[in-house]
Amino acid sequence: MNGATRGFSRYAPQGMVPSDASAQNNPFLDNRTLVDVISSLDGSNTELIDRAKTIFFPGDPAERVYLIKRGAVRLSRVYESGEEITVAMLRENSLFGVLSLLTGHRSDRFYHAVAFTRVDMITAPAASVRQAIENDPQVGLLLLQGLSSRILQTETMIETLTHRDMSSRLVSFLLVLCRDFGVPGEKGITIDLRLSHQSIAEAIGSTRVTITRLLGELKNSGLVQIDRKKITVLDPIVLSKRFS
Q1: At which of 157, 190, 223 does a domain end?
Q2: Tens digit of pLDDT for each residue in 164-194?
Q3: How far, CA to CA in Å, does 95 sit from each of 67, 91, 153?
Q4: Are the CB atoms for 175 and 231 separated by under 8 Å?
Q5: For residue 208, how many other CB atoms are within 10 A of its CB?
């Protein structure tokens, strides 16, 4: 069994529920969600970010915490060689920019955060979030659950990028997107993102020409359908076994 198969069988279909579902089913927490908590904090605001726009750069002051209401955000790390590696593809209800909470003082960003789609998000000052945690332990539990989801997304993205063969890397990436952004339908699971070949290439460290060729092969093999930049995986298990 290859990494792509392991990644899908480990987290699907349970992984296709919103990240705050566990909070709603936990008897030790009230009915508040991360959206409720972050939006109620002093200094919080709602922001709309256009696709491909930078949310923060490496080295920017880590003074705010971010929560995605709608859309997807790509987190990447830029190395001295100039290579940029994706570390997470964040979905709705994902919390990020939490380094400022962990350090307890002004710090710098390690990651480059870019809107992978148009993003609707809530931001709040790190100081307000820390104060809320001190005042109410349940807020800390909600934030911990949000952070756990973020760590899981990073782990699966790292697993995706360990494939040296670009075909396997693409398949693994598509399975991650099925898990996090998939909408089941009659034909299969449609990834609810408009994905250009260039955006996929940038996410997994490939080129547009290579991604176009590989997607064409998957389409010709009857494994995926592509309509207006939306990809439908007809059978994720069959797709994963293609490279097992």
Answers
A1: 157
A2: 789 988 998 999 899 888 999 988 999 998 8
A3: 5, 9, 11
A4: no
A5: 14
